[in-house]
Amino acid sequence: MSGLKPLARIHRPPRSAMQSGRANTHEWVLEYAPSEGVRLDPLTGWPGSGDTRNQLSLRFPTREAAVAYAQTRGISFEVETPPAPKPIQPKVYADNFRTNRGENWTH
C-alpha cells in the first residue's frame, strides 16, 4: 500500500438463508475493502490478488468495540446500520386445515 489508510466496513452480518431464528446475528463484523483489483493468473487463469486483507474478518460483540478497534489502529471505516428486525410470526400447522382460509389450496 502506498501510504493510504485502509478502508473498512463495520456491519452486522445477515442471517443465512437456512436460518429461521436470530442466533449468531448479534455480533458486529469489521471487513477490509479491497485495496487492489482482481487479476487473472497467467498460468492457471484463476482470479487472484496480492491483497490478503480481504480474507480477514474480525468479529466484535458490540458496535462500539468495533469502532474503538478501528479508531485506535487508524483505520478509516464506515458503519452500516442494520434494518430493524421484522417480528417472527409463529406458524401453526393446524392453520392449514381451517375452513375459513383466505387462499386456495395449491395441492
Automatic annotation (TrEMBL):
It comes from Roseococcus pinisoli. The lineage of its organism: Bacteria, Pseudomonadati, Pseudomonadota, Alphaproteobacteria, Acetobacterales. This is ETC complex I subunit. It comes from the Bacteria. The keyword Methyltransferase does not apply. Keywords: Electron transport, Membrane, Respiratory chain, Transit peptide, Transport. Residues 98-107 have a biased composition (Basic and acidic residues). The keyword Flavoprotein does not apply. Residues 1-23, 78-107 are annotated as: Disordered. It is found in: Membrane. InterPro entries: NADH_UbQ_FeS_4_mit-like, NDUFS4-like_sf.
